[in-house]
Amino acid sequence: MASILCSNSKARFVEDQDDPEEYMSSFCGTQMRWESLGILFTYWAFSASLTRDTDIHPVGQNVFTGRQMSRQFTNCVSKCIDICRKLGAPPNTLFVYVCFRHMLLESNVSGDAKLVAITTFLGLHCIPRTTPYEPSISSEIKRRLFACVYNIDKVVSSFTGRPPLLNARHVSTPLPLDIDDEVLLGDRARLLEVARTPEISDERHFYDNKLKSVTIMRARGMMAFIRNDILDISLGQIHGDVAASLR
Question: Among candidates 138, 130, 192, which has minimal Cα distance to 19?
């Protein structure tokens, strides 16, 4: 199994896919990658961290508390990331996502410059706004992933007082559309039909009067751009008239 995972992880991950089934199958089943396994470990780690310390989990001859299990799973995530790096495979959105989840597991208030570096290396911060926009599973995943990374960068900066690693001046990626996961993972014709409705746009949320996970993600993304302006004022220093020095 390890050999299969290594072989799959060495292959370039195809980013731009329109069909949800093809997209999911490209990193699941027989195409399972170390990034995929790392993502699974992050969910198991978060789940274990929510259990009470009095709950015990037998693993072989050993017994662990929920917190200990969470730490074990977090270590497994770290090893999956290390393997991906040692394999020398090109970075991809799956790798960015597992790094993002690992950062959240390690600390709620510690930034990760490597995460931002990989994010910008893949160009997730400068996805152009196209008109008309025809969403796909891959394009919306990229938008959603960047919104999460951008938001956590501002949260970390607010807690630590450090300058943010991502600035709105260098960001052109639109927020993800307020489209339900069921529609996004369903038939593409239905996805395009929903995307063409007047209520769906880059500026509208609470489509269909439903509070979805992506709705919260969009709201946090909007607040992150406002937070960016506040950080520019609170952390910035004005050194005279810049325009005058360029004349």
Answer: 138
**Rounded to an integer, what distance in angstroms lies between the CA atom of residue 23 and that of residue 29?**
12
In angstroms, the CA 192 to CA 202 distance is: 15
Range 5-12, long-range pairs (CB < 8 A, 24+ positions): 5/32, 5/33, 5/34, 5/37, 6/34, 6/83, 6/87, 8/32, 8/33, 9/33, 9/34, 9/35, 9/83, 9/84, 9/87, 9/89, 10/87, 10/88, 10/89, 11/89, 12/89, 12/90, 12/92
Q: What is the pLDDT along the chain (247 residues), one digit of tens a residue?
A: 999 999 999 999 988 888 899 999 999 999 999 999 999 999 999 888 887 666 666 666 677 787 888 888 999 999 999 999 999 888 899 999 999 999 888 864 444 678 888 999 999 999 988 888 899 999 999 999 999 999 999 998 888 888 899 989 899 999 999 888 999 999 989 999 888 887 776 555 666 677 888 889 999 999 999 999 999 888 876 555 545 554 5
DSSP at 64: E
The rounded distance, in Å, linking the Cα atoms of 6 and 198 is: 46
Other beta carbons within 10 angstroms of residue 173's beta carbon come to: 19
Q: What amino acid occupies position 116?
A: V
Beta bridge partners of 57: 64
